[in-house]
Amino acid sequence: MKISRPFIHSVLAFAIVMLFVQCNKKNNTTEKSAKTPAAQTTSISGKLPIAYVNIDSLLQKYNYAKDLNESLLRRAENSRANVNEKGRQLEKEMAEFQRKYQNNAFLSQERLQQEQQRLMKKQQELQEYIQRLEDENMREQQKMLSQMNDSIINFIHEYNKDKKYEAILNNASTLYIDPSYDITNEIVDLLNKRYVKK
């Protein structure tokens, strides 16, 4: 039930990586232009027309990602608190049942069985409630990831209309990229300026 920050960051990073890959593939198929010799694709400064974004830094600095992460953690904490409260209540009732059983406090065998069945049903309902909460939390997490990914990908498309990069990569899927191609801070600053907290 516990969702840890590293797990959420990993999931977010993986989702963004996958979307960047899909985005780059889509750009390559939809924008087929005449290929130029390699010597002509470099800019006057001698740099290739590419850039990259450091996904980990983006997730740590992008206010929307931080807010979503906090929201997921709050939701998980609330769920855990609800489950713990229901669990404590059930434990109390089971302890009371055990005490009555040991003291022969039930008026009849039928009453004993009724109370046993009631507690078993309550235990099953608690397990179903836990599963329902986990499913809801997972759906909410996926929805939030999708919203954040859409936000970043749409922004990258808009950003690149002016910048005209041939490729914007993510550092998570590369072994080495010259740091001068890093546009992470610029992207984060622009994303944060655009983001309005709800």
From TrEMBL:
Entry's family note = Belongs to the Skp family.
> Looking at the record's lineage, which domain of life comes first?
Bacteria
- Molecular-function GO terms, alphabetical: unfolded protein binding
Give the organism, scientific name.
Coprobacter fastidiosus NSB1 = JCM 33896
Entry GO CC = cytosol
Kindly list any coiled-coil regions of this protein: 73-150
Keyword tags: Coiled coil, Signal
Concerning InterPro entries, the annotation shows: Chaperone_Skp, Skp_dom_sf
**Pfam families in alphabetical order:** OmpH (PF03938)
The protein's matches in Gene3D superfamilies, at most eight in alphabetical order, are given as: Skp domain (3.30.910.20)
- Cite a single GO BP annotation: protein stabilization
Q: Which PANTHER family match?
A: CHAPERONE PROTEIN SKP
Q: Which SMART domains match?
A: OmpH
Q: What name is this protein filed under?
A: Periplasmic chaperone for outer membrane proteins Skp
